Amino acid sequence: SNTAPALVAAASVASAAATATADELPTLRERVEGGALRLPGYSVETSDVYYPKTFAGVWECRSSTVAVEAPCGNALFGGNRTFERAKAEVGTSLMYSTRFRYAGPTNNVVVADRAYNIESICRATMGANAVLDVPRSEDPNELAFILSPEGAEGQLYRADLKVVGRHSEVGETTGDSLLSFDVCEVVRQVVSAANPANPASIGTPRPNRPPLIKDIETTTLYRQISPDCIVASQKTLSFLVPDPNQDPAMAGYIVRVAQGRAVDVRTYDVVYRRVRE
Questions:
Q1: What pLDDT is recorded for position 157?
Q2: What DSSP element (H or E) covers 131?
């Protein structure tokens, strides 16, 4: 269980480790199973995540929601209605496609095709026509998307993603797995109203709608159990970032109530089945 008492101590270790090196931090499995609620303090340790070469290819993914938590209360999660909608997803599954590809000067390392993967998830969660544009960047640590989610009444949004922390580990191989690989990334996500006349630019938000800024930590524990099947446990933690343009009272409320803790915690079981090399 991810709340096993024997591992809860990992949370307090992580909260005191903001300036610690990776060697001094709990393992990624300890973070996931120990219920850590604060950012781990990883720097961007490598220019990208380098996955096992057996990951290369296109995979069909089934992501099943296992748990949804609001550690700082429903208000900071997004309100009672938002929390109840999220809780209703427990026990349901989402299907999307994931691609890992060869990269590097000699095509000798395997990385996630970030634009493809995020676009695939956005279409699965927001609607088939939700992604209007993906301004291309050569930097794997920075991505942007122009979105028109279903139900948003035509409102366009620009989502800017910047990796601010990254760490990976080769995990322990158990009897039924070929390999184990664990990875954590922290992404600064800024969602702004987009200008319909020029969606690639950031629109001028209304005074009561400043950009929504979050740090999102995603930790995934992969186990490859056959050449064509990978199973993973995934946990996301969302942290609100007070913005200078925000209502000072709300910014103060975030700081006072959250106290550096995640406001939205979700756990998933993910099964990857190979479609093609």
A1: 87
A2: strand 131-133
